[in-house]
Amino acid sequence: MATTYCDFVQNKGKDTVHRDYHDLEYGFPIEEDNLLFARLILEINQAGLSWETILKKKDNFFKAFDDFNIDKVARYSDKRKEKLMKDAGIIRNRLKIEATIHNAKCIKDIQKEFGSFKKWLDKNHPKTKEEWVKLFKQTFRFTGGEIVNEFLMSAGYLPGAHSEKCPVYKKVLKQKPKWLKK
User: Fold this and answer.
1) Number of neighbouring beta carbons within 10 Å of residue 11
2) What's the pLDDT tens digit per position in 81-131?
3) DSSP code for 104
4) In the chain, which residues have pLDDT < 70?
5) Which residues are within 8 A (CB) of 83 and not within 5 positions of it... i.e. 6 or more apart?
6) Is the full-model pTM beyond 0.90?
7) Which of 150, 173, 169, 132 is CA-nearest to residue 47?
8) Which domains does the chain show, CATH number per domain?
C-alpha cells in the first residue's frame, strides 16, 4: 500500500516543513488571486525537485516575487529577470522565471475578462483532471498534468489532498472546497 502525504506527515514528516503546509494550507480553498498565483508558481517550481525544497524556499519566493503581486510580476523587466537568476534563495531556472512572468500576464488578462483568477477557476469548475490540464496548457506556460493536478488539489478544486482518515480532512470539508460541488 502506497504511503499518502498525510501518512508521511503524521510519521516521518511531523517535525519538518511539511507539517504546517499539510495542516494549514494543503487542500484548503484559496480565495485571493495573488495567493492562487503563488501556489501555481510554487507548483511549477517544484517540477523536478522535492516539495520539501520548495517549502524551505517558500518565504524567499514570496520576497523575490513581491509577494506574488500579479500586477508587479507581470511588469518585470529583463533586468529584473537577471536579478532573479542571481537569487540563491529561489529556484534559478530561466524557463520557470519566464513562465512566472508570462503566467502573471495571463492572469491579468483573465482578471480583465472574468473579474478575478478565482472567478475564472470557479467558472471552469467542475472539470475532469484531463479537461483542466488541457485548459491550463492552452492558457499558461509550464503547466503539465502533475503541476495542474497538484495546484488544483492544493487549492481545493480537485479532491485527494487528504485521506479521509486524516484529521485535517474534516477541517478542509468545513471550508467547503470547490470539489464538493459537482
Assistant:
1) 9
2) 999 999 999 999 999 999 999 999 999 999 999 999 999 999 999 999 999
3) H
4) 1-2
5) none
6) yes
7) 150
8) 31-155 (1.10.340.30)
